[in-house]
Amino acid sequence: MKLIALSLKGLRRDLRAADVRALFVALALAVAATTMIGFFLDRLDRGLTRQAGQLLGGDLVLEQGRAFDDELRQELRRAGLELSDQVDLVSMVSQGDAFQPAGLKVVDDHYPLYGKVRVDRGSGVEGVDHGPAPGSAWIAPRLAQLLDAGIGDRVQVGALSLTITGLIDREPDQQAGFAGLTPRIMLNIQDLEATELVRPGSRIEYELLAAGPPAAIDGLAARLEALRDAGVEIRDVRVDRPSLGRSLDRAQKYLSLAGLAAVLLAGVAVAMATRRYVDRHLDTAALLRCFGASQRQLGQLFAWQLAWLGVVAAAVGALLGLAGQAVLLALLTRFLPLELPPPGGMPWLMGVLTALAVLVGFAGPTLLRLKRVSALKVLRRELDPIPAAGWLVVAFASLVFGALLWLYSGDPVLALGILLGGLVALVVLWGVGQAMLQLLLAVLARLPQGGQKGRAWQLGGRQLARRRTASLGQLLAFSVTFAAMAIIALVRGDLLTTWQAQLPVDTPNYFAINIQPQERAGVETLIEDAADSASGLYPMVRGRLTAIDGEPPAQRVPEESRNDGALRRDLNLTWRAALPEGNRITEGRWFDTDVASGDGTVPISVEEELAGRLGLSLGDEMTFTIGSDSITGRITSLRHLDWESFQPNFFIIFPPGALEGFGHSYITSFHLPDGGNQMLGEMVQRYPGVSVLNVEALLEQVRGILGQVTRAIEFVLGFVLLAGVSVLYAALTASRPARAHEGALLRVFGAGNRTLSRMQLAEFALLGLVSGLLGAALAEAAALGIYGWLGLVPRMHWLMWGIMPLLGAALVGGVGFLLSRGARRQAPMASLRLLGET
Amino acid sequence: MSHSSDHERKRILHASQLAKRVTSGERELVILESLTLDVDCGESVAIVGSSGAGKSTLLGLLAGLDAPSSGELQMFGQSLSDLDEDGRAALRAGRVGFVFQNFQLLPTLTALENVMLPLELSPRQDVAAKSRQWLERVGLGERLDHLPKQLSGGEQQRVAVARAFVADPDLVFADEPTGNLDEATGSRIIDLLFDLNRESGTTLILVTHDMALATRCDRCLRLEGGALTAIERRRGVEA
Ligand SMILES: Nc1ncnc2c1ncn2[C@@H]1O[C@H](COP(=O)(O)OP(=O)(O)OP(=O)(O)O)[C@@H](O)[C@H]1O
Ligand SMILES: [Mg+2]
Fold first, then answer.
1. B216 lines ligand 1 (CB under 6 A)
2. Domain membership of residue A222 as a residue range
């Protein structure tokens, strides 16, 4: 108890010290950063998940070929999920003499679980949160056009006649799947039986859509697994975010990366400030030892002191985070079309936990030094306990940071990888830094004695190189800081360009499918005339995978893939001489000659993810059943393709000459500029069999999300930069007394203000320059790994190598110069009186 | 003493009506009051006084390391009150050496680097050699690469002495230069000081409690009640 009181008293006296302030600022910033980024990520994540859930129709979607039983429904409800039943099937609908195939979407009263259906019920498009009432149907405008029907008309669906009461503008759960390519008609589930379409043998998909908290879904993991084994297809919004998956995944990874960078930087700042704190308290510690304090008491005393500091800093940081998050919200709601859920409690907890971890991890080992101080030190200065070995401090901090990485990423392998990579980088950096300081000394010694200006630079450089340990520590800290800042900035840039390149303005907004070979030329001219970009026509043959290396696929593929959709549905096959644009060969070779189908095996190219899922590798043979025939191909290449490109994409590509004999149609995608829509009417009229699918809405949605995420990224980037500046501040204030001491002495020896200023500027600028250079190297190395992780193409950033040293020199030079301005103004006697006793 | 007649007598330091007052909190503390002192070139002056009398403060003022609250001060014929901080530094450069009571060595520099520092401020070629030579003269030729905290108090003091003399100054202020030394080492340092005083006419202004040192000076002054009074030179003088 007495110790606690003593620690509080000590802390109060200490509040004037720069290092305690720096420590405080760094800790508060760490908490503010983590809570703020945590909140943001959490809310964004939940908001985006909800949006994705909207696209999917629910957080969890179960699908099978027969109706779900009530027992399962009850079980899901008990787990806390809200349910909605939906039935999908394709059937002919008619109005008068006009018959059209249509995609039936049969919904219950809970539909939609998320979002609103945008529908025109005669008084303009409005958003409603229900489907059509029994006895009525809502249809897509295109179907209305094809049937020549409108609101109030009746439409025949199977045995039932329904009144058209609405034209669907957009369904919240619109998907770009090819199952939904036929124009939509939506009806109430109470009418389903009366249509008499549900008969044995008809192809019907029953879907059970569920909405609820992730925990509820996680609680059902075992049950879902069993269902999967029983042949139920299950989509979890967190795993199967339709269409947006890759970009979102990257963005989230980026954001958590940035959050961690902010924590790392705050940690480095804490480490720097702690060093100074400990240096300053060594004498106190030794004196207390003289007075009879035990090691344990000493350790507890200072631990309590820092703990108090941590608690207050965490409180202030949390308040800052709260304020910042309010500001952020005010800023972002202007841009966000997305409705974010209210803040959760988790980020608070994580923020405070992170702060404590940072305090223990980055300050702990250094603090231990105070405990080990010997009473004799009061008499003999050299008895300063050896500074906690650099490697120990780094190792311990890395360990804690690694644990944080693990906690945040949930991926121990990744955490370990980053950690080991980081440690190797640090060791290399340490060596290189030492060598560079040596080199600096050598170069300076050899340099001719210049004029006053050159002399100041020489002196500054020399002081820097001579202050070995301290300079090396700062060099390392700044390099890591600059590297972290650079990576976050670099990745942001490359992420944005990747996204922009991925969805250029003329990204196709329409797909046309089911183009018959004889219609090909006509459709092509129509598109060419109206569209400002087109993918070209791809032939498409639908075939089912029936054997791999002669065995039934279900026996060949890895266990978890037995129910893979690719085994249960027809796959789209195509043939093509050249590798499609945007595809990349990852293994094997693209077939360079046409096959003469001689021995029956044909080279084929398979999409890499499918191959991975099905356990396929080069040389494996795949047999497809097409109608009553079959064809076998041998895998000669694996391809990477971009599913978000809005281009026709194919899992399996054959060379020309193998599939032409099978029944096929063509598919294409193209971009129609605004007002190019009358071409669609012409197309429908002239080629009624061709289905045109509008993906504009989906495209807009993808673009919208990317836009939001971009802003989030920029905001987070700003925060990382702020954390970087806090490192500068902590390190430079920590070294300020030493520099002030030196400055005062040089004054005594007759150095003028000009010389001193120049010298200090030179020292800071050199420090910044070298740190910038090392930081660039570190960033480049780290980017290699991170880009792979984010699925970006790695590249050299030459510009960065040029900019970083200059920026580093300017930043460290500027901040350092300003911070040491006060000391330069003081009379030397006053400075020395203040500093003499350290 | 007698050797001083070899040099042309010239005033190197002149102080009149010098006062230093500091305020700490509400109270004003008068450390020095209407103090007068004249020092000639090549002279050696010892200042004694009880602890807290203001000796270190006076030394700092005389060297221009601090500004007096009032009064007039001239060094090398230049009025210090006409000069700003920078001007005073320029006046000191290469001509004034200072030994601090608490040494004031830079903890991150080796003994040699500490001694080199004053020389490096002006363009010179022989910086390292000269510094090494001076460390040898104070008996630390073997300890060149040691950091201050690896040296004993007396050794640190000797480094500080070497640093004060390395630039061949005209005027050296020393605050208790032998305060931490044993008799033998102390007398070696004292010999060194006076050799220099004799050979190059370096003016010495020393604060000391060491009678052996005080008695070898041309003059001995006592600081008391903020002012200096001359002490009559006879054996058994109390410091
Ligand atoms: N800047 C200052 N602020 C407050 N008090 C000061 C300041 N400078 C000097 N003093 C006080 O003035 C008095 C004289 O200090 P000084 O260091 O000159 O004494 P000294 O004669 O050198 O003593 P010692 O023999 O113990 O070294 C002391 O009481 C000191 O506390
Ligand atoms: Mg004193």
1. no
2. 59-236
